[in-house]
Amino acid sequence: METNPKNGSLGRTARNLLETPQPPRRLSAGELAIRMADAMDADQTMRKEIVVCAMCIGQWLSDQGTPGRWDCLVPEDVLHAMGPLSPQDESTFLYNLAGLVIHACLAEGITPQTARHLLEQLPRLTPDPDLKHSFRMILQNLNYHLRSRLGH
To answer: What was the pLDDT predicted at 144?
Structure first.
C-alpha cells in the first residue's frame, strides 16, 4: 500500500481500498454445513439435519439468482418455500438455520450486521417460546463474541 513518505499516512488510493466495502463472499452451503457439523461434533442424525437445512437454503439462494450469497437470505421465504413442516421439523430447520448464519458470519461470508438482522427475524417465525428464547440467546452470544473480538 502506498504511504506518504513525509508522515507515513496512507495515500488516497490505499485509504479508498480500506474504506470501500468489499462484496460479500459466496459460501458453499455444503462446506458451511460440514464446518458447522464438525464444530458441533454432531452425530450422524444431527449432521444430516444440518446438511439438509444448508442445501435447502443453498437451493433457495440459487433459485433467487444469488447462489452462495447468504447475505441475500430471507428466512421466512425459505421456510415458506419448504412447504408445510411438522412443528418438530420446523423447529429443527430454524435452529440449524440460526447456526448456519452464525457460521456464515464467522467465515466472513456475511457481515455481523447481516447476521444480527437474520437472527432477529427468527423468533417471529416460530410459536415455540423455548425456541424464541434460544434465538434471543444466540443473538446475545453473537453480540458478546463480536464485542470481545473488537476489544469492547
So the answer is: 85
